[in-house]
Amino acid sequence: MDQDGKGGLGLLVHQVRSGELDREGFLRAAKEAGVTEARAAGLADDALAACENQRRLREQPREAHDFIVIGAGSAGCVLAARLSEDPANQVLVLEAGGPGTHPDVFIPSRWRHLFGTELDWRYQTVPQQHAADRVVPCPRGKMLGGCASNNASVWARGHRLDFDGWAAQGNPGWDDETVRRVFKDLEDYSGGEDEYRGVGGPLRIFRTVDPHPLARAFMEAAQLAGLPTTRDYNGARMEGAGFFDLSVADGERFSVAQALLFPAMRRPNLTVLTHAEVTRLIFEGRRCTGVEFRHGGQVRRVRAVREVVLSAGAINSPKMLMQSGVGPADELRLLGIPVVHDLPGVGQELQDHILVAGVNYESRIPLPPPRGNGAEATLWWRSQPGLSRPDIQPILHQFPVVTDELGPLPDNGYSIVPGLVRPASRGRMRLASANPSAPPILDMNYLGHEADVEALRVAVELSRELGASRAFDRFRKRELMPGPLGRAGMVEWIRKATTCFFHPTSTCRMGVDERAVVDPRLRVHGLEGLRVADASIMPEITSAPTNAPTIMIGEQASRFILSARNG
Questions:
Q1: Dist. CA 481–CA 495, nearest whole Å
Q2: Residues catalogued as catalytic
Q3: Strands 287-295 and 298-310
Q4: Which residues lie closer than 8 Å to 179 by C-beta, 6 or more apart?
Q5: Using one digit for the tens of pLDDT, what is the confidence trace for 233-288?
Q6: Which is nearest to 233 in space by CA: 149, 160, 294?
Q7: I want to staple 139 with a disulfide (CB 3.0 to 4.6 A). Which of 71, 115, 218, 335 is the partner?
Q8: CA atoms of 230 and 238, how far apart (whole Å)
């Protein structure tokens, strides 16, 4: 896979599937890439079959489907594939974005170049009171695959206590032992099968095999500092320094869309509509019976015979609930939205990991181009003794990372980016108006709890210690920021450097208390025919990037739905 934006074989196949590249053009490009004639012909035929099937389904739209899945992101791709495995189920997927055929989608290290483009919802927070009153961007994928198509391709489940904590809050079936089996079923792990890891599943997960020299230096620095290493943070022990597992195959991003959705698009009972933006859910009494959406310049309605599943993400799922009349009743009435169901927890408990961008260095030598996802090595650690699990996560980036307020920086550099993965701060989201096209009001409340500030201060100092190690001597010309600051100066810098970790969760929280939005089977409390299945249902954010657990949530949801139908 080229790093210069040319793309690779997976991109070419998807361009055929999306109708953007014809068979002859694909065969020419595949031949130039060294693909055998027989293999290229087979790939072209499969992609063209999916393209033709979806064209035919679009031209002959159904008035009703058994299941409507809103959002083709990390969970929605799983649901679409699993629910349509039974040819008796008619499944409709509504995705607001396009197919996602930009070359940068397929190049794992270029994820940051997708932010702020048409492939991003381009959400941003209100000025963050505790982060120097700055407006912080909150990138969200707007294409097939959702954030699995614009993230850093990291496969990280989270700590076992995360899931045991979910179960302890009244959510049976979400404990670590149970979800571990689900993760194993999903994985095809290059390191082989054991008690913790799976093989033979649809998702190809690869260990980092040829890390960037900077990633190797990071690992050496951790060892010189006396920190432990972990061979598999998704296995018996999360804590320590290690290389990331990546959803990358043959040099290209291998997202949940490639693994599950795209192969399913040949099925005659699965319709995938892109550029289909949902305006509201339709209710008859307390039952969700369908969806209204914009597509092709028209407002359309479609009926759900069995269920509607919201998988639009931690921002758009609560947004759609509220604009449909499900949420805090007083707020909805103020906006002139008729109340279908008063559910006060919708949009509350917003959580995100925090990145501090970043501990940056100028390199004394020209650096090799980024490898893997451009951020191959990390450390999970505890900011203070006695914590039950790691709460901070410095990550080595093979390029500078800085906020607009503190940049720009020289291009020939690298960074160690401190992260907070057990935030105490909680935010919320609410509607700005009754207009479905209006972006929501997001308040992440970054650094709203003093414990987060202190944990990040420790993470920054640890990152600086690693960056000053002799392991980096052949690279490090000088530390660009933050430099040696006193406590007050360091806290001020952290407030200016705080940014989104791209992991919003918990706005449709699962639970059994009065503030919960969905029950342990992901059914919306007080309503029928409606579930939510995405990162918004997490009772508490996981201690790692949230893509893998969101995919697991989609798998769990599909099993709940199918067992209810078959039972």
A1: 14
A2: 503
A3: antiparallel
A4: 157, 163, 549, 552, 556
A5: 999 999 999 999 999 999 999 999 999 999 999 999 999 999 999 999 999 999 99
A6: 160
A7: 115
A8: 7
